[in-house]
Amino acid sequence: MARGGWSQWWNVCERSTIPALRARPDVTPAALVRLSVRACGQPAQPSPTTWQHGRVTAATHSTLFPQVPDSADAVLDGLDPEQREVATALHGPVCVLAGAGTGKTRAITHRIAYGVRAGVLHPSSVLAVTFTNRAAGEMRGRLRQLGAAGVQARTFHSAALRQLQYFWPKAIGGSMPRLVDRKIQLVADAAAACRIRLDRGELRDVTAEIEWSKVTQTVPADYAPAAAKAGRESPRDPAEIAQLYAAYEEVKRERSVIDFEDVLLLTVAVLQDRHDIAEQIRAQYQHFVVDEYQDVSPLQQRLLDLWLGERDSLCVVGDASQTIYSFTGATPDHLLDFRTRHPGATVVKLVRDYRSTPQVVHLANGLLAQARGRAADHRLELVSQRAPGPDPVYAEYTDEPAEAEGAARRIRELIDSGVPASEIAILFRTNAQSETYEQALADAAVPYQLRGAERFFDRPEVRKAGIALRGAARFGGNDSLLDDVVDLPSQVRAVLSGEGWTTQPPAGSGAVRERWESLAALVNLAQDFAAAKPGATLADLVAELDERANAQHAPTVQGVTLASLHSAKGLEWDVVFLVGVAEGMMPITYAKTDEQIEEERRLLYVGVTRAREHLHVSWALSRSPGGRPSRRPSRFLDGLRPGSTATTGRATAGGAGGIERGIPGTRGSAPKRAQRVPARCRVCGRTLTDPGEMKLMRCDDCPSDMNEGLYERLREWRADQARSSGQPAFCVFTDRTLMAIAESAPDDERELARIPGVGMRKLTRYGADVLAICAGQSLAESTDQD
Question: Region entry Disordered: which residue ranges (predicted)?
Fold first, then answer.
């Protein structure tokens, strides 16, 4: 490689490496994985210490172990059958589909520890990667407690950065460029070079778009079509984003700096370009474990592929139903396609939920029962291992302040009864909702801490708005904005319009929307303040804001956690309050597409599964006191909360726990008969028991979407088959089976095989004809194509 400086080499990487990564052919969609118990002759071997809940070490609640196990076999003590299967599957690709609270970290750390203690894995040859430093630290701690110190547990970026720093002199020469931890200033400089004005919120949003482009391996010239294909709502004109992206890259080159995405891109480029370095890394790391695999981006997957080379010593763990970061480039496709990429993989499903009570688990399962899309097809049906607890509490309030006060009042009662404040959380959809709950908790003398967000009154836009309001209160007579307004709410709207507030919210999500929500909260506060205190002045409002800001400086230790649903991922509490669960907030207003709606449903699922025992779900009918009660509870609660009916939609059957072993060396297989699971109506979700309804996969009184023309063509074909074989027509297919085929119109043998009444014998004999008819082909055309 030429040593003409890293920037020259980076130019080569940008022109060749990234397009090459982007051009890799897509992997075909993975077949639905059907899991079964161990094969005949291979009974599960229970641990000497029973794994039944009550004697098993808590799967998720505690990471403390009393002592280091004295042997390799002792590492397996206390694991349930599926966790034990994960721990002992040390060779070949392994995919662990782990539901919320099922002990996935426990399973994979015991797997690594068992391999190390048994002498199969050398500690220094194992690289475990996850997505947060907290998770990596927890994993290292658990491994030490299991007697497996020396294993590397890092984030993708941390592992790549160490490798890049070590090999930089050999691969490129000279010193590695400085790594910048924040992009915003560089983006601001790029915008100045392009003569484009961006406020603070827009800077954050443009930065997010650049990050998304890089992790999806999109170069500036391709940003506009890539963003359109992904359904992203750009914060500015896509052509401007592309221009800013290109300018940003140029600013980095001029200053000889790199960002965090460059760490991954450059590591990928080094491994692709320098096979000697790639082989050196592969000689070091021979076994890989990837946690939260549903959140892997295309760039991270490419890096993982290069680490692996031609080997398959890989264990991945994830849950497609907890994919809530697709806006950052994360995709569950790598998890769902794992069996296609690795046909010989062992697949284990963990569904025993050790975190939550049966009542909480029932609600979590119900949320996903009406889900749609690919992730929903692979959902896991959780089975609680805990003793029964209280039912979830649903509460409706007249307005948002009343909802916050109700939550604070109940929390005060819980704390007084002995529940630690640190075991209670209030979870909401957007950070802008926090202010109302901060105030309510402060009024109730309840300590709290904010996670993943600044305190409301510490946010830059709120502080700036406060300065503007204070100035208007002092010198309003000289402000032309206030010439034509008389009442307090109008004055506040006029002042904040100069700070970016508008009557209509901006399109899409991101920093601009969050900034608008903060200013809108101030506007709403002014309206409520004026209604409560007629005749109040702008100065009175400023004084009220100052008092609120001072009163909310509560201690941040041992307090109730206030967090957005996104920042709550991976955490758990004894008591969880899910607030604001109303249409417009859950799902959020700007979630328009089916994919976005389904991600909102998964986000609520993540919130529900944070609760161990007590779950409170609430919503308000109006925003402010005296407002029109026009809101309604979230559609996601239809059929789950008392007094509601289920939303019409397709219900999917959840997967049971178990193990499926792949066949090494295979590249696919004939369609398998699905494992028998409870049949549910695909329209209303009711469990079916009538044989005729089970064939149709719907209740008789649920609406049919049958293609009448297809049904008639199938009947004509069946009559011909019956005549030629000399048997009654129902021996070919019954009327109910033909109706089910006409309703589902299967595209391939796997879909056809799922229809009750279509066995392997009939699939082999009639499958090609039926699929040709469903595709609108004549049987002569189908024969010619064959």
Answer: 621-676
